[in-house]
């Protein structure tokens, strides 16, 4: 009996051929816009797409989930097919590859967006444990504060003042909703 020696399969996060260990980057830009239970690090997915496919080739993801493999395929000049049994996954992926939305998402530059968050203090109310020393921004996670900053930045760029003020009032409503749910 002849034994065939199979090469060792590389693990997902280690590549002996290039002696490179993959380190996941934080979700930013369009990848930070939503949560998905099985979201994979976009930079690692991009590395695999670049390593194992050529421009113009087709990448198929039968469990496309949050759409990272599909968007990274498109960003790197590949064609992509995404399939998923979950209608939410298909919806998210379609939103991520909408050409107008992609242009908008790619126009974001975190370095140019001023961090905005409500700096007001709470009003004092002992019945709901609200204290004058606490700040409204303490109700939000850093990720949510960045998302609010992105929204505020885009709102400030709306030329029509009536439309701009409408959206800013809606943002204020978000703050009030979070505030009322915190107590």
Can you walk me through this structure?
The protein has 183 residues and is mainly alpha-helical. It folds into 2 domains: 14-106, Vaccinia Virus protein VP39 (Rossmann fold, 3-Layer(aba) Sandwich); 112-181, no CATH class. The protein is 40% helix and 7% strand. It is built from 6 helices and 4 strands. It has helices spanning 42-52, 68-75, 87-97, 99-106, 142-156, 161-181, and strands at residues 14-15, 20-21, 58-61, 79-82. It has a two-stranded antiparallel sheet with strand order 1-2. Strand 1 (14-15) and strand 2 form a beta hairpin. Helix 1 crosses helix 2 (68-75). The mean pLDDT is 75.
Summary of the model, kept short:
With 183 residues, this protein is mainly α. The chain is 40% helix and 7% strand.
CATH architecture classification of the largest domain:
3-Layer(aba) Sandwich
Number of domains: 2
Structural class computed from helices and strand pairing: mainly alpha
Number of strands: 4
CATH top level of the largest domain is Alpha Beta
Largest sheet features:
2 strands, antiparallel
Rg (C-alpha, Å): 22 Å
Helix proportion of residues, in percent? Answer: 40-55%
- In CATH terms, the superfamily of the largest domain is Vaccinia Virus protein VP39
Q: Shape, please?
A: elongated
The run of helices and strands is EEHEHEHHHH
Could you give the order of strands across the largest sheet? 1-2
Q: What ranges have pLDDT less than 50 throughout 5 or more consecutive residues? A: none
CATH topology of the largest domain: Rossmann fold
Termini separation: 72 Å
Task: Write out key terms for the chains shown.
mainly alpha, two-stranded antiparallel sheet, two-stranded parallel sheet, 6 helices, 40% helix, elongated
